[in-house]
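Chapter review: from sequence to fold.
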Amino acid sequence: MKNSILKDNTLLDLGFKKIILDLPNAFKRAVETRNWEALDQDAFKVCGKDGLIYKELKRFHEFTQVEHLINIRQGPGDEDGIWHDDGSRYLAFSLSLNFSPQEIAGGELFLRKKGDKNKIVTLSPLPYGEMIVFLTGQYNFEHKVGAVTAGERINLAGWCS
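The token string follows.
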């Protein structure tokens, strides 16, 4: 484990922390217009070294880069994700881009210490601009996303290495 570069030891207790971000207006416009290319370009900016997400994640842990992807899941017909730990990465994040999370059924983020089937944290889809920062493989935590059974779940997901 890399505890010497973990800056917020409270993460070790639950494995996650929720924070609220004041996202650029361009993010909202891109989601509203479903302009995924523009959203991806904006995500590169906020995940880059001078970006909002990069700076927020630096409060929790040392790392050299942030990678991201746009994750859109719809129900019915979606499938459960699988438990995984993101390998050698330190932190991961899930930023909600959902304007009406109450209209989403399923789509929960599940977190646990690796292999611990008895203590699972379940986080329902969050409102727009709320982000879950969580520990991954280097700290023996794993996660998965449950199937979306109704509605649409839009998140910017990423990890630090």
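Two observations follow directly from the output. Strands lie at 16-20, 66-75, 91-96, 105-106, 109-113, 121-123, 130-135, 141-145, 148-160. The chain has a mean pLDDT of 94.
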